[in-house]
Amino acid sequence: MEVLTFYLEEEPYGIDVRNIVEIVEKLEPVKVPLSPPYVEGIANLRGEIVPIVNLKKRFGAKKSGGQSIVVIILHKGEKVGIMIDRISGIQNVQETELKKPTRRLKKLIPPEFLAGVFSVGKTRYLLLDIDKILEEKGG
Predict the structure, then answer these.
(1) Using an 8 Å Cβ cutoff, are 72 and 24 in contact?
(2) What is d(CA 54, CA 83) in angstroms, rounded to the nearest whole number?
(3) Which residues sit opposite 73 in a β-bridge?
(4) Which phi-psi region, left, alpha or beta, contains residue 10 (left: φ > 0; alpha: ψ -120 to 50)?
(5) 123-128 and 11-16: which strand pairing?
(6) Is 42 among the domain residues?
(7) For residue 6, which of 50, 69, 53, 80 has the smallest C-alpha distance?
(8) What CATH number does residue 77 fall under?
(9) pLDDT, averaged in runs of 10, over the chain (139 residues)
């Protein structure tokens, strides 16, 4: 599978490119009252209203600013934006290269949000399960 690799703070992550519609810079979300705390708001993407999710807040991070890139993904037939800090690249990852997350990693991020762990060189990436992250329960 092809994986978009990116960073939140200095932590490397990845998502399956099959989920990605496009990547946008400088999308300014408008706050929506009563939305979950991890939803930054909604943005107008060429006439289409798209909810924007702050992954740092979703993962429970105390610091959550600095994201300037929004990855637009398709979730259950709807476009959703996820905020990231910077893109690393695209990697080809074989299913056999995916490992189960260690107990230590599960403390950094809710384990249900992880699809696996893979390495490229000396860098270990956490492969995210976007569908689980965007489920409303637990938020």
Answers:
(1) yes
(2) 5
(3) 20, 80
(4) alpha
(5) parallel
(6) yes
(7) 69
(8) 2.40.50.180
(9) 94 95 92 93 95 91 77 95 95 92 70 92 94 74
Asked whether residue 139 is domain-assigned, the answer is no
Structure tokens at 130: 């976007």
Specify burial of residue 55 (Cβ count, 10 A radius: 0-12, 13-18, 19+). buried
List of E strands, the chain: 2-8, 11-16, 20-25, 39-45, 48-54, 69-75, 78-84, 86-92, 114-120, 123-128
Give CA–CA dist 78/50, Å, rounded. 8
- How many other C-beta atoms lie within 10 A of the C-beta of residue 12? 15
Instruction: Provide the domain count of the chain.
Output: 1
Total residue count of the chain as it appears in this document: 139
- Domain coverage including residue 27: 2-134
| Contact criterion met (CB below 8 Å) for 19 and 73 | yes
